[in-house]
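Appendix C reproduces, verbatim, an entry submitted by the partner laboratory led by Prof. M.T., so that reviewers can inspect both the input and the predicted structure.
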Amino acid sequence: FLGLKPLSILKDAVAYIKRTRGSDIDIGTIDIDDPKTYKLFCDGGTVGTFQFESPGMQKYLRELKPSTFEDLIAMNALYRPGPMDYIPDFIDRKHGRKPIEYDIPIMERYLKDTYGITVYQEQVMLLSRLLGNFTRGESDTLRKAMGKKIKSKLDELKPKFIAGGKSNGHDEKVLEKIWADWEKFASYAFNKSHATCYSWVAYQTAYIKAHYPSEYMATVLSRNLNDIKQVTAYMTECKSMGIDVLGPDVNESQIKFSTNKKGDIRFGLAAIKGVGEAASESIIRERKENGPYKDIYDFMERINYAIVNRKCLENIAFAGGFDSLIDFNRSRFFIADQSGVQYLDALVRYGQRIQQDKQNAQQSLFGMAGDGGGNVQPPRVPVAEDWNHLTILNKEREVIGLYMSSHPLDRFGFIIRRMCQIYLAAMQDLTPLKGTEASVAGVVTSVTPMSTKDGRRYARFVLEDYNTSHEFTLFSKDYERMGMLIEQNNFLFIRGRVQPRPYREPEELEFKILSIQHLAEVSESISSIRVELDINDVCTTLTQMLLEKVEANKGKATLAFTVVDRANNVKVKLSSKKYRVAPTTEFMEFLENNEFNYF
């Protein structure tokens, strides 16, 4: 028995769909020819499914365009070291770009479903009986010898196969060629029944994802709650699917990830560090029994302080869980009044006093006159300067594990998309980049100053972009030249060259840092922006939109246009010293959102 997480995900997803939609899904009897599911496979939209979610597999699925369950079984068996070499040929044969050929015509009986390519141990067993007169026992011995790579047993069976094949009228040279192929096949022979079972589970996960995308992804996220890297990757997938992943909210969140009426996914309260399931259950139970919380005072008056403690409330505030109940910046919770009491503590005292007064009133002879608590005044929101955006995001990250409401790199997004050749994920394998120069960008999340035995200073620092992080080392001379830029929370643009590491084996590569700049400086250094417009799109409305954006984002960079008439293959360049613009996030996103080409 294998303990597979996807089986738990399927069980949870089916139960969740039953709770939210009232739909009963018998996952064992779903349609094996479902068009929506095959479209998901054909599009390579398999992130979060079983067995088919790697980038390489997604690429091959988009090329293969699987149309039958047999295609999925074959891909499951082929996508492994060794048989992967046959995948391009498998795809070409399926789509008729290469002929489907058989060494002996009768082999079609067992190789038709895999387009003439031997993929499974079972095919070898059947063909050995068909061609070489092997008994069932002998064909199983052949399977075992191939599976365990027992060459002596294969050598023992070969003469019998050749003799049996010749007795059936087959050419000895062709039989020798088939056996040689099988010997090569022995190094990666795969069991079809195993591939079939795995492909069926994979198909089931893809079916649920295709038909119930929000519920499925919410379940996948919940099952990976403790793996922030996976959660980040699945949140990216949700975004590509058009599903928003929203931060925790005391009026909407469940314990784990859940979906709302719009089909968006909401972070669970238990995903916040220091909150836990007991406190989450208490907050949710009160909300269900007595209605949504009206405001922060109502929340503080109703929660159970025996379960929901001060640290729990602090982390909910940091995570933005109270944002829907307040009309002020969440940083105000942590501003102290003249007596040194933080607003959050004042709220807790207020809530506890209200509850105590109500309890006293119920126990008093005069308690029938009212609920009590009427004389307790709610604390006032303190007046103070709000935290900057980066501080808020860092607090959010501390308690959730990632940036939720936005990402600190968002304001430099256009630079990263336009001027960085690679993301940091590409640094995991530098081989494809050998001998090239490339730029990366990100925010510094940690710095470790160090020194050599002879006292020379250097530093290690971690740079993080939207999806991953990478540790760089800045050695002595480079540290002297660029080390002052390596500070936590700095936004950096780093240019480097991928080259062999000195004094090491030639195969070992490094990313040699050539220059470091603040991302803000890179933005400010942009001296001109040229926008390409299709002549058919140029109209008064477009002109007015552009003028409004230029007016709202005045700066130093010259703005020029190239008007293109594609029908007549004509380009006209227009320049003007009158219009100067700042390459702000707002302006650059306006260009990108309206699909303007710019450079």
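Residues 60 and 337 are 62 Å apart (CA to CA). Additional entries are available on request from the coordinating office.
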